[in-house]
Amino acid sequence: AMLRLRLITWDVTDTLLRMRQPVGESYAAAARAHGVRVQPEALGRSFREAYGAQSRRFPNYGRGQGLSSQQWWVDVVKQTFRLSGVHEDRVLTPVAENLYRDFCSARNWEVVPGAGETLSRCRQRGFRMGVVSNFDKRLENILSQCNLRHHFEFVLTSEDAGFAKPDRRIFEKALRLGGVPPEQAAHVGDDYTRDYGAARAVGMHSFLLRAAGHSEEPEVPPEHVLPTLGHLLALIEK
């Protein structure tokens, strides 16, 4: 039977937008502009370490602990470079500020193939649309610059909500913003726990964007799996 959906909510990172290049490449280029050479691979490893430590110490961009998300990110960038052997503040401060600004724009993000067409077709079918993303407040601007913002009635970030997926409260807030009960809503995302499982836990439908061969996660019914975004409407309208 066709799902009686009125609202579709969307994850962003690796669902609608992806980085144009690995984070280590972006960081290495920013350092080169200040005359500092660091291997992109080393920066990539250092970034994962710094980002992980900062996320554990100050979850959700430090929102509950009085940090601004800009300060949170500037600290991550500086620590990334320190772990890669760069310690001079006259380099770290401008590089961190430039990277914070650059990741605010379409310079470092690109639209996942098929995303724009799928969003347009969903809107043509009359679905209400919103974003539910573990992201900081730059997301509105990034979506605008990548020409996707107009598809959505609301953009709910974890920084705005005060809760990050898989916390059920961010999905409950999205349902209030969309004005629909959970059984009339579906969430689309690429993460089994934060997107698929968390949306289903509040009673929403959910679709998991997953390339073929990703089977290390728990089984998901095939009618909930999207090999590409282009498969979504066929599954909804089955």
From TrEMBL:
Its cellular-component GO annotations read: nucleus
What is the top-level taxon of the source organism? Eukaryota
**Do you know which CDD domains this protein is assigned to?**
HAD_dREG-2_like
Q: State the Pfam families in the record.
A: Hydrolase
Provide the family line.
Belongs to the HAD-like hydrolase superfamily.
Output this protein's name.
Haloacid dehalogenase-like hydrolase domain-containing protein 3
- Annotated organism of origin: Corythaeola cristata
